[in-house]
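The step that takes the researchers longest sounds almost clerical: writing a folded protein down as plain text. The outcome of that step, for a single protein, is printed below.
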Amino acid sequence: MELTLALVLLLGCASVSVQGHASELLSGIERCGIMDEQCLVNGFNNVLKNYAQSGIKELGLIPLDPLHMKKFKIGRNPHSPVNIDLSFRDVDLLGLHRGVAKRASGFTSDLGRTIELVMDVPEIVFKGPYAVDGRVLILPITGKGKADIKLTETNVHAFIKLKRVPKGEHQTFAEVVDIKVEVTPQHVSYQLENLFNGQKDLSDNMHALINENWQDIFNELKPGIGEAFGLIAKTVLDRIFGKLSLEQLFVV
């Protein structure tokens, strides 16, 4: 979620690849001034619309929809009414190609400000194997199977701090110092296959509980979700910034 927000924006703004052929690959995408917020937003939306599902191999942009994640885990919080170990593996995140960027602010030549990236996504779906164990409110929960979790009308808000890393003459790279991501959906629905080893009555009751209390459940999971995606985003952005200089990405 957050990782794609920053990644597609940065690559969407660049019309010059490492080999100098991105203008052919990214037809219609201009190289933006680093403080031109409208240009950055337009570039972001252009990439989402035209390349989110295919990726851009020449620039190292992987397909973003579906976005495949090998591992994703939220650990127990003993002080929370949602005290669970929840893990996913080989999960797909779908729906980002329909996202729309709303704001891209804070970019400056000296990278001295916190960068804010905001987008709205009509529907985000997580699909893949899960495992859960713990307690939800006052009831125990356990299960292992396939999950289908849908976030509707979701706002994604990322805050990124960068620092300049000069390398040689006229070459300035960036390094991620900190990244925080807030994910705010208007509704969440949970479908977890094989809860309680397939015991239908227990599974039906738990699904009713978690879907009726979706807001409370998500609020408890939200910090862990934001932290996990922040770590993923930092890893990906460090790779991008280590490869492409600010001079290649922007008109600075």
